[in-house]
């Protein structure tokens, strides 16, 4: 679970790092669940079509439940 709730703006470098982690986990048959950032950061992820790919959820508790369900 990657918690982005404290993140405001996300730069292209930040998006790259998040995608790199997601791809690394996928290669190892893992899945990443991401807790949504503040509205300004979320807008960029949605604009790039990444919210669904990153397994975006609204809270850390929801993310933990999703991880358990993915096992």
């Amino acid at each position: 679970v990657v918690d982005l709730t404290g993140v405001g703006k996300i730069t292209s470098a930040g998006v790259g790092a998040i995608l790199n982690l997601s791809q690394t986990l996928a290669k190892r048959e893992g899945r990443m669940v991401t807790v949504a950032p503040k509205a300004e950061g979320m807008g960029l992820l949605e604009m790039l079509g990444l919210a669904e790919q990153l397994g975006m959820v609204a809270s850390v508790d929801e993310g933990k439940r999703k991880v358990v369900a993915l096992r």
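The first strand starts at residue 2 and ends at 3. The helical segments are 12-27, 39-47, 60-70.
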